[in-house]
Structure formats: structure tokens, C-alpha cells
Amino acid sequence: MSNPQDYNSGDMPPPAAQDSLVIKIIMFCLGVLLLLPGICVVVFAGAMPGSVDGQIVILWLVCLAISAGGVFLIAKSFARL
After folding, report:
1. Of 59 and 16, which is predicted with more confidence?
2. CA distance 10 to 74
3. Would you say 63 and 38 are in contact if contact means Cβ atoms under 8 Å apart?
């Protein structure tokens, strides 16, 4: 068992506070993948502006919510650099 006093010396942060670069890269890549449904919504919504059904709008909102999660992951990956 480690002594908590060892980490108060200022030499290095506690192991729980160290973030891995691999985790940041995975978060960024997953965030980019989650942006793709939102890009598709923007393209298809622009392609058919006159013919909008209620179910399509719900699908678009779900896709935009997924993309918002992607933006959040990308922002979190850069905030921890």
C-alpha cells in the first residue's frame, strides 16, 4: 500500500491524475466518428427542404444529439492536454 505522503512532495502527480495520451486519442477518434450522423443530417436536410415528415425530424434530432456527444468528447480530449 502506498503512503499518501509520498505524493505531496511535488515530484509527480498521483497516479489517478495522470491521463494517458492513448485515452485522449481514442476519445478524439470516437468524437469524430460521432460527428458523422450530424454531418449526414445537415446534408440530407439541405437536400430536401420542402418534404419534411415528423418522423424524419425526430430522427434528425437523435442524430444531432449523437453529434453533440461527439463534440463533447472532442472538447474533453483537448481540455485534458
Report:
1. 59
2. 30
3. yes
